[in-house]
Structure formats: structure tokens, C-alpha cells
Specification:
The protein has about 190 residues and is α/β, with parallel strands linked by helices. It is built from six helices and nine strands, in the order E-H-E-H-H-E-H-E-H-E-E-E-E-H-E. Strands 1, 2, 3, 4, 5, 6 and 9 form a seven-stranded mixed β-sheet that branches. Strands 7-8 form a two-stranded antiparallel ribbon. The two termini are about 20 Å apart.
Length: about 190
């Protein structure tokens, strides 16, 4: 199974990117092939011009298309996900996340930014056809120690990350099993 991580932070040294790295490492440790895409490393002018013929952008879009699992991480700016991430998500076709299990992750200065995931990012992921978007993971700055690009999570955040990744893998297993959808049969952590 292939997984893709999308780092939506404009900075190379960010909490959201470091948290995404932990998630990617956990999936890799469990035998999944993980492709990490830092959107900030894509050619900026081509990204903003929506030049999908650019080799780097085309390759990133192809990686998302081929993945069964997608993890999206972003810092929260002004009550929303990053504009950089928005620029990339806008390049995906309407069904760009079809038949994928998706985990949205965000970091922010305080819990006041918590709803940005559910009111800003989740609707976009659903609009792109994500069949299952598992419960979002928001981490406030005070819930981590972030020094020299390395992140250490508070125990309760580490547990929430572990649970989110387990739910993500379970959702993906459900998707590939081709089990028919029956109303109200999903685990409470799934949003379909």
C-alpha cells in the first residue's frame, strides 16, 4: 500500500512538518511505502500558475493519485489552512482524493484554531472526493516541544497521533475490502 504526506507549511522548519514526519515514520515502520511531498519545494511560479505539465508538479499529483492513504498537514493561519496547501489542492481534479483514506493534521498557536480543520480543510477534502476523512488531529504549540526542527509530543498527543494513524489504516482497509456502504455503520472516528 502507498501513502502520501503533503506538508503544507511554507517554512522548512515547522511544527506541522515535523509532526507529519512522525506520522510518516510510523507508517513506514509498519511496512507502508510513504512518499513525502513538501509543497514548498515545488516550483512556486508553476504552482501558482497551475502548470500541471511541470515535471515536479505532475509527479506530485501522480503520487497523490496512486496513493491509498493521504495525510495532509498544515499550520493554521488566520483561521484557515495555509495558502500554499490551498494552491496544491486546487490542482487536484474534482475526484483527486476518490477512494482514499485521508487524515488532516494541523498545528496552531492555541486551541482557538482547532475548528479550522473541520470548517476549512475537511470540506475541501470531501469536495475532492475523499471517501473517508478520519478524525482530524490538531496540536497546539504548547502540546509539543519543538527545538532545532525536532518535535517531542506530550503523551496525550502521542496517543492521539497513534489512534489517528490506526483509524486511518483501518479506514483504508475498509475501502479496499469493497464492503458496501450501509448507513450509520461507520466507526465514530470516520466522517464520510
Amino acid at each position: 500500500m502507498a501513502a502520501v504526506t503533503l506538508a503544507g507549511s511554507p517554512g522548512p522548519n515547522s511544527r506541522s512538518t515535523a509532526l507529519l514526519g512522525l506520522a510518516a515514520q510510523r507508517l513506514s515502520d509498519e511496512g507502508l511505502r510513504v512518499r513525502n511531498i513538501a509543497v514548498r519545494e515545488l516550483p512556486a511560479s508553476e504552482l501558482l500558475a497551475a502548470d500541471m505539465k511541470n515535471p515536479a508538479i505532475a509527479d506530485a499529483l501522480r503520487a497523490v493519485e496512486q496513493a491509498g492513504i493521504v495525510i495532509v498537514a498544515t499550520p493554521v493561519y488566520k483561521a484557515s489552512y495555509s495558502g500554499l496547501l490551498k494552491s496544491f489542492l486546487d490542482l487536484l481534479p474534482q475526484s483527486g482524493l476518490k477512494d482514499k483514506a485521508v487524515l488532516p493534521i494541523a498545528t496552531g498557536g492555541s486551541n482557538a484554531h482547532l475548528l479550522a480543520l473541520d470548517y476549512a480543510l475537511r470540506p475541501v477534502l470531501a469536495c475532492l472526493g475523499a471517501r473517508v476523512v478520519v478524525e482530524s488531529l490538531f496540536v497546539a504549540d504548547g502540546q509539543t516541544d519543538f527545538t532545532d526542527g525536532r518535535i517531542t509530543l506530550a503523551p496525550e498527543i502521542r496517543l492521539r497521533l497513534d489512534n489517528a494513524l490506526a483509524n486511518l489504516q483501518e479506514a483504508h482497509s475498509w475501502l479496499i475490502s469493497d464492503t458496501p456502504i450501509i448507513a450509520n455503520t461507520f466507526l465514530p472516528t470516520f466522517a464520510v
